[in-house]
Design a protein that fits this description.
mainly alpha; 76% helix
């Protein structure tokens, strides 16, 4: 009797999503960090040059490194898990002949991608928001480093208590979710739809990493442009000295700077996320395909 073949550590879709997501998140954050810094300074209420201008464009990179791998891994584990469950549900409905009158090709698949991506973003924000708060304050030159920002927040414990420190670390949680959910609800159905189109054109079972990167870049650019106003609001909220409600801050920006303020950093954001989409989704596809081939 022969022994069964050993199970590869990457045979599980959960493990592949976890490792590929962590690699993708770290790769994109490190490679595009300078553009992210410039975008943050363009959106700062203090102005571009008072916030640091072109100096110290890697300020706050430490916090980005801490949060990028776990945040992206958490996103893709949630995304792939919910997507596979929804796909199994659709297949079961198809076998039973019960589609609820919904045209699957037209609605059920992209809606499933929207739901999965939105859930993934909400999960990832548990890691992303605290690191984003620290990172953006360092980028805007409020403190010389990520560690200095973190210490300044923790030093407020005697004044505002542990709960107050927790709220400060999660400042902008609501607006970040409000920005990320529409962004991913646009980007991921576009990306998945273009990948499906490419698979049909080529007859292959999966797209290559380069193809995934190109399609991710297109989807990211479209989503980035449409969600820039929410990104401006989120950045201003995280950089503010005092906590302020999103609607109150929106009205304040509108009165003081007018509607043009809500497209501040539009070019930098589109360039950053377009390039980021290529690197993020290209490296994710490469890692995922490589681990699938190993198994």
């Amino acid at each position: 009797m022969t022994d069964p073949p050993p199970i590869s550590p990457t045979s599980s879709p959960f493990t592949r999503a976890l490792l590929a997501g962590a690699l993708a998140g770290t790769t994109v954050d490190l490679s595009l960090y300078p553009i992210d810094t410039l975008k943050t300074r363009l959106q700062s209420s203090a102005g571009f040059y008072p916030s640091g201008g072109f100096r110290g464009i890697y300020a706050g990179v430490g916090s980005a490194l801490v949060g990028s791998a776990p945040g992206a891994a958490l996103f893709f584990v949630t995304y792939e898990g919910i997507k596979s469950r929804l796909r199994a549900s659709r297949e079961q409905d198809d076998r039973a002949g019960d589609t609820g009158g919904i045209d699957e090709a037209g609605w059920r698949v992209p809606v499933g991608h929207m739901v999965a991506a939105s859930a993934g973003e909400v999960a990832a924000c548990a890691v992303r928001v605290p690191t984003e708060v620290v990172k953006q304050r360092a980028q805007a030159a409020q403190q010389p480093s990520s560690m200095a920002v973190l210490r300044s927040i923790l030093a407020q414990r005697a004044k505002i208590g542990v709960l107050g420190v927790w709220r400060e670390m999660y400042r902008g949680w609501g607006i970040t979710v409000m920005r990320e959910v529409p962004f991913t609800a646009i980007q991921f159905p576009l990306w998945e739809g273009m990948k499906a189109w490419r698979r049909r054109r080529t007859g292959r079972g999966e797209v290559t990493a380069v193809e995934s990167g190109i399609l991710g870049s297109i989807a990211g650019a479209i989503a980035a442009g449409l969600t820039t106003p929410l990104d401006v609001l989120k950045t201003r909220m995280m950089l503010a000295k005092e906590k302020q409600a999103a609607w109150s801050l929106f009205l304040q920006i509108w009165r003081q700077s007018g509607p043009r303020a809500f497209v501040a950093g539009l070019g930098a954001r589109i360039m950053w996320i377009s390039a980021g989409g290529a690197i993020f989704l290209g490296s994710y596809q490469w890692a995922y395909n490589s681990m699938t081939a190993i198994t």
